Amino acid sequence: MKKVKYKGKNRYNEFLSAAKIISKKISKIEGVVGILATGGIGRGYCDDYSDLDLIVYVDDKRVKKIEKYIAVGSLIYKDIALDTPVESYQRALKHRSPSPYWSQVMRWDRENSQILFDTEHKIENLLKEKLVYPDWEQKKLLKKYNEGVENHLKYNFEMWEKRGSLINLADSLIKATEYIILWIYAKNKKFQPYLPKWLFYYLENNFVPEAKYSDIIKKVYLNPIKKIIQAKRIRTELIELTKNIGIKFNYENLKDIFKQDGKNWEKASEKTKHYLSW
Fold first, then answer.
1. Sign of the Cα pseudo-torsion (106, 118, 65, 71, in order)
2. Over the range 17-28, which residues count as b (16 or more CB within 10 Å of their CB) and which as e?
3. Cβ-based neighbour number of residue 118 at 10 Å
């Protein structure tokens, strides 16, 4: 397990010890199938701002009864915040992966975890089955994020530059950079972390090769943009970055986009042209 390192005291051992004590007691409740420690314990770093995250898997028929006194939320005991949701093991098993249930964020959370209690290896086998990242999903996400980068770095940026809006130029750069980051994660088949809190998770911890470009990626967040020339300079660096990591654009500039839209009009049906022309 790779341990995330941040400034401040790491209370990991304290959190893990507490989690084991709690898990031992919860495991004796009728219907409990397994207990999974996620969050800071799973990532190897807990501090004063961390929750003690435990996923309690139980038999479906026992969920409502057990969650009444386990999944209560908003509790702090001995300076540790508790987050202990109760989930149906059968429901988790039934849903295919990927799916809305086994989303990227869900898989990221479960991937960074420790099993503290497991009946007949059910949780171990559940994670083996569900923590997958198929090629088709990667292809779909790469396309989605690539389009997001192009939309903000090409179309929106040029549009707001011509309109003379500095704040919207900065916003376009921030949104384009977010898509670049997510594209990098998809390229490396890294599950999307919980956003916006953990957007930089893989980059700042050097978990992906593209972390070497962090200085360029961080510029739009750390350097206040006060002039359009600054925005244009950062944009140029980001475009160069996209070339280096493999992001490809369909258009060079705004004129190309308008030209293509014009061709689309020519290809439209006569019925479409009739109703949408003046």
1. negative
2. ebbeebbeebbe
3. 18
Residue-wise pLDDT for 193-207, tens only, equals 999 999 999 999 999
Helix ranges (H only) for 112-227 are: 122-130, 135-150, 157-163, 166-187, 201-204, 214-222
| CA–CA–CA angle 118, 195, 211 (5° rounding) | 95
What residues does each domain of the chain span? Answer: 12-130, 135-247
CATH number for the domain running over 12-130: 3.30.460.10
What is the band of 223 on the pLDDT scale with cuts at 50, 70, 90? Answer: confident
The rounded distance, in Å, linking the Cα atoms of 97 and 134 is 9
Average pLDDT, the chain: 95
Side-chain half-sphere exposure of 126, counting CA atoms within 13 A: 24
Question: pLDDT value at position 253?
Answer: 81
The pTM of this model reads: 0.92
